[in-house]
Amino acid sequence: MSEPPVTASSATGAPSAAAPPPRSDRPDTAAGPDTAQRGFVLLVAAGLLWGTSGIAGHGLQAAGVTVVAVACYRLLFAGVVVSGYLALSGRLLRVPRTRRVVIRLLVNGLLHAAFQCFYFASLTLVPVGLATLVKIGSVPVFVAAGICLLARRAPTARLAVSVLLAVTGMALLVGFPATDASPAELALGMTCALAAGLTFSVMTLVNRSAVVGLDPLVNAGLGLLIGGVLLMPAGLIAGMAVPPAPAPLALLVYLGLVPTVLAYLAYFGGVSRASDAGAAVGTIAEPLTAALLSMALLGEEMTAIGAAGAVLLAAAMGTDYAAGVLSRRRLRRARTGTG
What we know:
Layout: H1 31-50, H2 53-62, H3 67-89, H4 99-123, H5 128-151, H6 157-174, H7 183-206, H8 216-238, H9 246-270, H10 276-281, H11 285-298, H12 304-336
Helix pairs in contact: 1-9, 1-11, 1-12, 2-9, 3-4, 3-8, 3-9, 4-7, 4-8, 5-6, 5-7, 6-12, 8-9
């Protein structure tokens, strides 16, 4: 989508001076697995936090707030909070005004706005659960394909196993819910959901490589703010009214702070550090969290097939974490000369 910023490695595979630490798929140094594990944990945390957004959004829609307004307020609120902190602390003044920084922020803003538009468009055509799971379920495939295409190599066994478990688990968890949508609406809704998944995957791939001088807080805050501004015209057309009652206002604050500010800080802090497999499957904690919260708070039931899918999703995330632990142990043994 733009000129690649600082790449993670040179053409020969050697880390560049400004690149993030080596990922655990290719543990070139002892710090690699530790860094990749921390990145993976941050991505899982982002997924867990994002998983709570469905409950908040459900409450706001029940109060009469349009889905586009929810998306617009979410981005604007989070962007203003983080950018305001950056301005008050003087950190905005220290952000380098380089071409790569500007391009990265603009690209992230466009991706934020496009993702919200595609996702919420899908919600108007097909059931929320189906749209959400198709969107999230497509991400591991898109990210894995992008990683392999950019690196011009076949997927590693670790990446392939993680993605296979994630996609299988997602297919079981979605349960192919019934829909009254016409074939045309279903096709368009699925296209929008897949486009949302592709947009999020592009954001993941773009932010896999760091830009010098652009820390995760600045990247998250300004990107969200730009995305909210870009989405505002659509929000004004759809209607931005929010009932002046404590419950919907509290839900808006929660949606802006927890599954947006905190979640995207964790996401941008982890995506450039995680392994290939971790970047592909780390955030699939979102549908698992959403399913469990729906059972606990909305009274929804999970079938035996859905439970099996949830187990496979957990296994997909556990596979990468376990592989990171094994990589770290192998490197320690190599350094100490023990078997």
